[in-house]
Amino acid sequence: MVFLHWKESRENACKHFGVCATNHRMPHKTRVLILGGGFGGLYAALQFEKRRDPRFEVTVVNRENFFLFTPMLHEIAASDLDLTNIVNPVRKMIRRVNFFCGDVDKIDIDKKQVVVSHGFDRHSHTLEYDHLVLALGSVTNFFNLPGVAERALTMKSLGDAIQLRNRVIAHLEEADTECARAERPPLLTFVVAGGGFAGVETIASINDFLRDALPFYPNLKEEMLRLVLVHPGEYILPELGEKLGRYADRKLRERGVEIRAKSKVAAVRPNEIELSDGEKIVSSTLVWTAGISPNPILDRVPCEKERGRVRVNSNLKVEGVDGLWALGDCALVPDPATGKYCPPTAQHASREGKVVARNIIATIYGRPKTPFSFKTLGALAAIGRRTGVARILGINFSGFLAWFLWRGIYWSKLPRTEKKVRVAIDWALDVLFTKDFVQFLDQRALVHTQTETGAAPWNREHLSVAGGVDAGNGAVASTEKPGSAPPATIAA
Length: 492
Fold this sequence. Notes:
The protein is an alpha/beta fold. It contains 13 helices and 26 strands.
């Protein structure tokens, strides 16, 4: 009864005010609504935050209440960093900008309204705007390949990194038992699809993690491990050029990683991954980093698009639509230097965010708008064992120096001094101590009924592929989708 009374009161209040209390506004303010809290959206909000202009009321809408520093995501999966050290609470970063934690359900550019939902009951609100910034990013694309969406893990979110770490550790624990001797090949074979930055850094870090953990599992040997990187090109990391790509290829092979060039994942079945060349790999773990698509909510926005991405002019404004701007992964931003489009990278998105904010302010004050122009400073990748590859200002680096540059440059870009200090401490301790191989689980403790019946609140099968692993004593096929967070795993 109390909950119902509270819910009715809240709904009545929402109807009276139109939006949540965080969106109350004074008259004559320009309402700016930023959809997305990634690099583009957050840096646009930070630009308004620094300006402190009372003429603007800015609101950021994001489904998580934190900003994830994705370049270091693979270090969470490989236990190089604590999971909270690469995320920043949005509310700590923007104190003068409103923040709404929820999902975007509908965008009406004619009425200049956005419908968002949140709360345990997923109730909705309508937010009105004068200027709308689309910074919704991208989503994983499985290209409708058989079994991939149901069985593959991904590496785009904090929850993805936690789930991969839990999966790897669960497989080590299971494979170390004598009853799982026959099932060690699928348990100890890990396949990563995609030879770009995310795929290479993921397999390199997981390779180091597995080999560092093996001495603590007496029944497992290094020759039992198999890590396979599947890439459709001739060499990995094509963004860095052939020389660095082949260097990374050679280093990974030296460390025991198999690389299947000119090949793609064709299908995934229980304990089997089929490649486009017909090869079948016995494995119950596939990490998919081989494709992304713009956020599907953009399909409902009636504006000019190409391959799902919103076309904008040099000022990052959508032509023909009043007050609509777009940036980052979900936009096609013209590059004046090349005549093509800017790559969807963090260094571009963060600068696009700043330009969008300045141009919205310039529009209100009647000033000339600034065209976006930025030349990529460089690109870096960590490939394991304190080794990296980098191209900075056209100069190639490899080996320890490139790895040191990777850490130094990304550390300097990490928001907030607190997180910089925490990451530096983690890296320093990593030199002195071995990696932790503990799972991040959130199941509750056993209760009386469970101890009486012997029922456990979870089992390791939830952390493996559905119906994939038979521990040798008739394991029951799980109904959970392995590509989704298992019941015992933190879903971020």
